[in-house]
Design a protein that fits this description.
There is one protein chain. With 228 residues, the chain is α/β, with parallel strands linked by helices. It folds into two domains: 161 residues, 3-Layer(aba) Sandwich (Rossmann fold); 51 residues, N-terminal domain of TfIIb (Single Sheet). The protein is 25% helix and 36% strand. A seven-stranded mixed sheet has the order 3-2-1-4-5-11-10, with helices on both faces. It has a four-stranded antiparallel sheet with strand order 6-7-8-9, with no helix packed on it. The longest helix has 15 residues. It starts with a helix and ends in a 5-residue tail after the last strand.
């Protein structure tokens, strides 16, 4: 889906550049749902010490293999427990690639936002990307071509419920002269950008909304410094 690790790392770096995320050295960042390191590795290359958390041991093995000697602390665990692994206030927290929609409930998202607000330094940033599933697609619009090459064709099919959308991945893979079909599915929250923005503002963030990669919504939220 990512088009290969190196291509994904380039896209991750481009996204950080668009956000003007840089460190002159000594900066600390947290990557929630880090996966194989699409943002963790570019962050570390830009001078950040990174705490990278993911629940997938397979993806984290990929991250270990590509991180080399970069300053990345890798944690296999629940991203909602990220504060247990912090050694100091982070300058930036990232929750990218539709990770937010995989959380179990809106209450879990509110808890995450509260924890990020409590953990960040004054003026620190919380960057989130997610897909807007608030308006249900209908008919043929529910079939979404994701990626294809000479060996694989990936298509998604969406089924909507009141609070969730079930995503069915239809993967055709070439096996010699034949195509084999593999099907998997998972549920996501139907997040409305306005609701997420409101939850961030309620916790003391000022929020900038913009277009992210691959049609995602990107929110760059800055923690407003507390008044002494």
């Amino acid at each position: 889906m990512s088009g290969g690790v190196e291509a994904a790392l380039v896209r991750g770096g481009v996204e950080l550049d668009a956000l003007q995320i840089q460190s002159s050295g000594g900066g600390r960042a947290v990557d929630l749902g880090a996966g194989f390191g699409m943002h963790s590795i570019p962050l570390a290359r830009r001078g950040f010490s990174v705490l990278a958390i993911d629940s997938s041991s397979e993806l984290l093995r990929e991250l270990v293999g590509h991180a080399g000697v970069l300053p990345i602390q890798i944690v296999h665990g629940d991203l909602l427990g990220f504060r247990d692994h912090l050694k100091a206030e982070p300058d930036a927290v990232f929750c990218m690639g539709d990770t937010l929609a995989h959380l179990p409930s809106l209450q879990a998202i509110e808890l995450l936002i509260a924890d990020v607000a409590a953990a960040l330094r004054d003026g620190g940033v919380f960057v989130l990307t997610f897909r807007d599933y608030s308006a249900a697609l209908t008919g043929e619009q529910r079939f979404i071509p994701v990626r294809s090459d000479a060996e694989r064709i990936l298509t998604c099919f969406l089924e909507y419920e009141d609070a969730h959308v079930t995503v069915h991945d239809l993967l055709h893979e070439r096996e010699g002269a034949r195509w084999e079909l593999r099907v998997s599915s998972y549920r996501k929250l139907r997040l409305a950008p306005e609701w997420v923005c409101g939850a961030l503002v309620a916790r003391g963030f000022e929020v900038r909304r913009e277009a992210g990669l691959g049609g995602m919504i990107r929110l760059a939220a800055r923690r407003i410094p507390s008044v002494q």
